[in-house]
Amino acid sequence: MENRRQRLFWINILLATALLIMGAVGGFYWWQNRFSTYNNDQYGFSIKYPSDWTVSENTNGAVVLFYSPLENDLDILQENVNIVVQDISRNKMDVREYTELAIRQMELVFKDQIETIESEPAYLDSKPAYNYVFVGKGPEGNLKYKSVWTLKDYVAYQITYTSVESSYDRYVNKVNKMIKSFKIR
């Protein structure tokens, strides 16, 4: 009888320990994957972003920039997502025409230092869109970009993720969640 009680006691201890470990791991996972919502009434959109990222509005021509946390003191570029909104009512075009123009502009900026990784039609907020992933090669290293855009009422909405090429995969899943959460009002 005493042997059975001891065995039950140790089984309960092991189960309690396992539950505590699972709870800690689950809590850490939840903390790392928490998202907040950014709303922009002026341009009529919202997007969810990782809660531990920094938000900066009206920076370098972007309506908003979301910066990943610095990884360490040697982090040379904070991975970021920016949203640019353009009124194209004076030069009305559809997604296909806008895509041709956007890619041509990127090719002009990077000249022969651009490598296209993905170039395909997509959807953004259930609207026809375009997904363009490329590497821009430079003297300081390669940057990898994921840019998705759509149009609504002759306004272009462009979301761009920028990363050092070697760090791109670290945040791309969070960025894809951000893109899927993007809503135009």
Explained architecture:
By secondary structure, the protein is of the alpha+beta class. The protein folds into two domains: 1-32; 35-184, Mog1/PsbP, alpha/beta/alpha sandwich (Protein Transport Mog1p, Chain A), CATH 3.40.1000.10. The radius of gyration is 22 Å and the shape is elongated. Strand 1 (35-40) and strand 2 form a beta hairpin. It has helices spanning 2-32, 95-110, 168-181, and strands at residues 35-40, 45-50, 54-59, 62-67, 80-87, 114-124, 127-138, 141-152, 155-164, 183-184. The termini are far apart. A seven-stranded antiparallel β-sheet has the order 3-4-5-9-8-7-6, sandwiched between helices. The chain has three helices and ten strands.
Quickly describe the structure.
The protein is an alpha+beta fold. It is built from 3 helices and 10 strands. It starts with a helix and ends with a strand.
What topology emerges from the helices and strands here?
Layout: H1 2-32, E1 35-40, E2 45-50, E3 54-59, E4 62-67, E5 80-87, H2 95-110, E6 114-124, E7 127-138, E8 141-152, E9 155-164, H3 168-181, E10 183-184
Antiparallel strand pairs: 1-2, 2-10, 3-4, 4-5, 5-9, 6-7, 7-8, 8-9
Strand order of the largest sheet: 3-4-5-9-8-7-6
- Structural class comes to alpha+beta
CATH class descriptor name of the largest domain = Alpha Beta
Tally of contiguous helical segments: 3
CATH superfamily of the largest domain: Mog1/PsbP, alpha/beta/alpha sandwich
What sequence of helices (H) and strands (E) makes up the elements? Answer: HEEEEEHEEEEHE
**CATH topology type of the largest domain:** Protein Transport Mog1p, Chain A
- The N- and C-terminal alpha carbons lie at a distance of 69 Å
